[in-house]
Design brief:
The structure is a homodimer. Chain A is of the alpha+beta class. Chain A has helices at residues 16-25, 32-43, 50-58, 64-76, 136-139; strands at residues 48-49, 80-84, 90-94, 109-112, 118-120, 125-129, 144-149. In chain A, the strands form two sheets. In chain A, strands 1-3-2 form a three-stranded antiparallel β-sheet. In chain A, strands 5-4-7 form a three-stranded mixed β-sheet, with no helix packed on it. In chain A, a hairpin with a 5-residue loop joins strand 2 and strand 3 (90-94). Chain A is globular and about 50 Å long. The first copy, chain A, starts with 15 loop residues before the first helix and ends in a 6-residue tail after the last strand. Strand 6 of chain A pairs antiparallel with strand 6 (125-129) of chain B, so a sheet runs across the interface. The structure holds a DNA duplex.
DNA sequence: CCGCGAATGCAATCAATTTGCATCAAGCCG
DNA sequence: CGGCTTGATGCAAATTGATTGCATTCGCGG
């Protein structure tokens, strides 16, 4: 799985060609807006809200609807995951990025109740006790875990 | 019903007087709509969405806005908690019910990704490993835990 | 039983999305 | 390399759900 250097948080520079490949192989055309969205998702490691994405890319002249539709397209293609981290905001997180990009496995998220910030916790593991009464999938760990609390800044 | 014989002492039948007391002691008037909402929250143990509440009580002639405002009032009074369990739907859960009603402590929730059903897991405990990089509050367990997956029905 | 202010019903407003449609451009073919 | 076909985009209108304004009604202390 991981090569010696795979753990390094260094983002593999999203190569333009790689991004295009990813899109094309998913049956999506490679357009400026899509490359921008996809590239941005490769740069940031935390889930982004639609608004965040629009702020970050809006100055490039893309339309809200376009970004929105692209995010949905990417989600449908299985490239990103669309989730609500508990703050009533849709967020999009890269799931199946260009080859070699990490951050693809399911992992817990932490959302700050105060500032709304999101932290990914790929290294966190949970041990569950007293799963009686819980759905089977809980015992089988076939679940998504989400934590809410105060981040170090806000506590 | 399940006779897990566990901790649940049995839902104390929400006495009308008790509900009124609860409202009055929170500075809220005891009205038909409020008693209905509060009573319903005492009966159901899982968080209810605004829509669910309206479905359940709407036939009694209450207005959407009224139920909505009442839920907000109760939330502001600290009687219910308003949370988004990750499906982009606001849910309201009893936090400080009439004396003796349980279900008041913070506990994990499980949301089914398919049917949207919610299960409370008051008995579930978690052991966290590899909290490095996570906010301090995680290690201190000052957090809300939420699980998403498929319930037994949908799996 | 009366009066004041909170609560309610109804409609209008707001905000966040989502969709319709004419236009433009990516990918394909000759 | 220049069209051609169809998906993608921009702009604006349509939706959907959440909130708020306001006149009326009702709870409840006096």
């Amino acid at each position: 799985m991981k090569h010696a250097s795979a753990v390094a948080p260094l983002p593999s520079p999203p190569s333009l060609a790689a991004l295009q490949d990813l899109l094309r192989s998913s049956g999506l055309r490679s357009t400026a807006a899509r490359l921008a969205v996809l590239g941005y998702l490769h740069e940031t490691h935390t889930p982004n809200s639609h608004a965040q994405m629009f702020d970050a890319l809006g100055d490039r002249g893309f339309d809200r609807a376009t970004i929105y539709r692209n995010l949905m397209d990417l989600a449908e293609a299985g490239i990103v995951r669309r989730t609500d981290l508990g703050d009533h905001v849709w967020r999009f997180e890269l799931v199946r990025g260009v080859a070699g990009s990490r951050h693809t496995e399911e992992h817990p998220h932490f959302v700050c109740l105060d500032c709304g910030g999101v932290v990914c916790l790929p290294g966190l593991s949970l041990e569950l006790h007293g799963t009686g009464g819980a759905p089977r999938s809980v015992g089988e760990k076939k679940i998504t875990v989400q934590l809410k609390g105060l981040c170090d800044n806000c506590s």
